[in-house]
Task: structure prediction
Amino acid sequence: MNKNKAHIQIVKPLKTDDLQVCKATEKDMEGLLAVAASVGTGDKNHRQGFLMDNYHKDKEKYIKKFQEDMANSKMFYVIKKGEKVLGFLLAYTKEQWIKMEPNWVFDTSWKWDFDKKALKKFVILEKIAVKSSMTGNGIGSELFKKFREDARSMGIHDMFSETLISPKPNFASMEFAMKQQYQLAGIRYEKFDGKVLTDIIYHRKL
Ligand SMILES: CC(C)(COP(=O)(O)OP(=O)(O)OC[C@H]1O[C@@H](n2cnc3c(N)ncnc32)[C@H](O)[C@@H]1OP(=O)(O)O)[C@@H](O)C(=O)NCCC(=O)NCCS
Result:
């Protein structure tokens, strides 16, 4: 199948009422890795969307990373149909994020009209992924809904998200950002695997 057409070839939509969003636990590990590996490969398909890491290599490293995230993030969700993991969302609070990326606020070139009050207290949606054969069924939106509700119940009303635009633009991620009404807040350059990447920083009120 032509991967570029994966998004429009699904004819029978999945009923989102059959889906359940819950916190990721150790028993979801195989499902998480399978979802991550479906969109995180060596080949970055800019139309279908992609994760930067290649989950086909060094599985142990990613198991360890997911275990740490399960222990440390209050916002690591899986979406399931029965026991089958169809997608996941990982978010961090400002405190967690700044520990990982201490210069994030200063390294970002903020848009002139972006209100920096939003930086006082926020969550960052670090990763969202849906099984590559199942995108366009509302699964990502269900994950986002749960993340938004939980952030609000924690008293957090601002979120950020980053999308790669260079060297390869992640079109699926940009489209998703539009659907969820994210707004452009800034641009950041980051080093990854010896390359310089350019990211759009999106902001949304929750
Ligand atoms: C981004 C992603 C999580 C969206 O999940 P999803 O389940 O397809 O999302 P939904 O079905 O709720 O919403 C789909 C919307 O996303 C956009 N979208 C999703 N896949 C797309 C694709 N291949 N091409 C274009 N737009 C796409 C569309 O705007 C679509 O809106 P529509 O349904 O009104 O047409 C999913 O495409 C994905 O896992 N991509 C690979 C990983 C990735 O890029 N993650 C983001 C960076 S961390």
Notes: Residues 3-205 form a domain with the Aminopeptidase fold (CATH 3.40.630.30). The mean pLDDT is 92. The pocket of coenzyme A is lined by residues 7, 39, 47-51, 127-130, 135-141, 170-173, 175-176, 179 (CB under 6 Å).
